[in-house]
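Sharing a chain and its predicted structure for anyone who wants a worked example. Both blocks are below, sequence first, C-alpha cells second.
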Amino acid sequence: MNKGLNIYFVPEYIVMHPLESSGKILDASYYKSKGALIKRLYGYSFNLVLGMAFLIKQYLKPQKSISFFSSFKESLIGFNSINKG
C-alpha cells in the first residue's frame, strides 16, 4: 500500500488447523509444551512468575481435561526437559 500497489481480498481458506493443534484442548501435552516454552523464554528470571501466572490463567478455561495438580506437574516436566539456550 505504501508503494501505491492495489490489495485484493479473496475469501478462500488457505490453511485450516484442527482443534487439537490450535491450543484449544488443554491436556497434559499442552501443559508440558507450555512449561518448556516458559523456560525457553524466561529461564529462571523473575519473569518466570509471569509465565506461571499464564499457566494458571489457562487452567481457568473451561476446556481443560486434567486437574490443576496434573497441569502443574506436566508444566514442570516440560520446564525441566530443555536446557536454557
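Comments welcome. The helical segments are 28-42, 48-59, 68-80.
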